[in-house]
Amino acid sequence: MIKSFFKRNNYITVSKTSFQNEDRCEKGPNIPEGTWVKCNSCGKIIYSKDMINEYKSCKYCGYYFRLNPRERAKLIFDEENPKKIFENIRTSNPLNFPEYDKKINKAIKNSGETEAVTCYEAHINGEKVVACIMNSEFFMGSMGSALGEKITRCVEMATEKKLPLIIFTASGGARMQEGMFSLMQMAKVNSALKRLHKCGGLYISVLTDPTTGGVTASFAMIADIVLGEKGALVGFAGRRVIENTIKENLPENFQTVEFLLEKGFIDKIVERKNLKKILCKIILMHKGGNYFESK
After folding, report:
1. Which among 148, 158, 176, 244 has most CB atoms closer than 10 A?
2. Residues 30 and 130 in one domain
3. Beta 45-47 vs 83-85: how paired, if at all?
4. Alpha carbon separation from 161 to 124, 194, 196, 224 (Å, rounded)
5. Is 132 annotated as a binding residue?
6. Is 294 exposed, middle or buried (0-12, 13-18, 19+ CB in 10 A)?
7. Which residues form the domain of 176?
């Protein structure tokens, strides 16, 4: 009799409310993916449309999310669909590096672009320019032979047509899968820029996040005017590599455009909302025009 009080049941009791709660969870609001984004700087959640309306920045802390070439072109150029140039130049596999072709095809599919740089002949407030917009979403914007060829062709076009050249840099450095073919692009582009300089042409570089490696060590830093987008990472080797080499701790803001401006390596830090206006002003000053009479 007493043992029956301590006897365990061989089943569990399921309440009706548990099923009701389950149904309630399943019938919750269906929020499309990408409606909300988390800021990489302050960690706050932002409504996507608000972020886009604020030039793809965080309304709380001002952090800039990265722009792909299509987004950058929409921000800078007058044309809704600016003319792309040198789209026929594609990446090859000169060293027959294993899996390289597959990775390139995947990058093309994911980014919607054919290379880590997209080149344009377009207008900024009515002023015709040649522009190269690098893409960190394509193989981390790494510099291969196709990228070097496209930028070199743009430099040559700007020289021949006497047009301002603007390069928006965003790169993880040289593309290891192409070995020496990748590294030689540094000298190739710089040689073309030297010819542009001798002809009195204008070259403006805009450093965006991230600009590192061979791109920093070559054409990114030798422009007539070097602008930096607020908060961009700019450097050559990685922070940890440098600290381990010199056995010292680096400043907190090391390898930022703010640090570079403080040390005199760049000319100005720009806000995205003012970038088009500033570029137009520089172009008109170079050609001897009056900025205040521009559109």
Report:
1. 148
2. no
3. unpaired
4. 16, 16, 11, 18
5. no
6. middle
7. 66-293
Q: Is 61 assigned to a binding site?
A: yes
Q: Number of folded domains in the chain?
A: 2
Residue 205 identity (one-letter amino acid): S
The reply to whether 97 and 200 lie within a common domain is yes
Same domain for 248 and 267, yes or no, is: yes
- Residue 76 to residue 86: CA distance in whole angstroms: 20
What ranges in the chain are assigned the alpha helix state H? 16-26, 48-53, 69-76, 100-111, 145-161, 179-198, 213-216, 239-246, 257-262, 272-287
Residue 37 lies in a domain: yes
Sequence letter at residue 163? L
**Can you give the pTM of this predicted structure?**
0.87
Q: How far is CA 100 from the centre of its chain?
A: 22
Residue 119 labelled as part of a binding site = no
Task: Encode the chain (295 residues) as per-residue pLDDT tens digits.
Answer: 555 555 555 555 555 555 455 555 555 567 777 789 999 999 999 999 989 889 999 999 999 999 999 999 999 999 999 999 999 999 999 999 999 999 999 999 999 999 999 999 999 999 999 999 999 999 999 999 999 999 999 999 999 999 999 999 999 999 999 999 999 999 999 999 999 999 999 999 999 999 999 999 999 999 999 999 999 999 999 899 999 999 999 998 999 999 999 999 999 999 999 999 999 999 999 988 665 554 4
Contact 266, 250 (CB under 8 A): no
State the amino acid at position 239 in one-letter form. R
Instruction: Flag whether 5 is in a domain.
Output: no
Phi, psi of 174 (to 5 degrees): -70, 150
* CATH number for the domain that contains residue 157: 3.90.226.10
125 and 38 assigned to the same domain: no
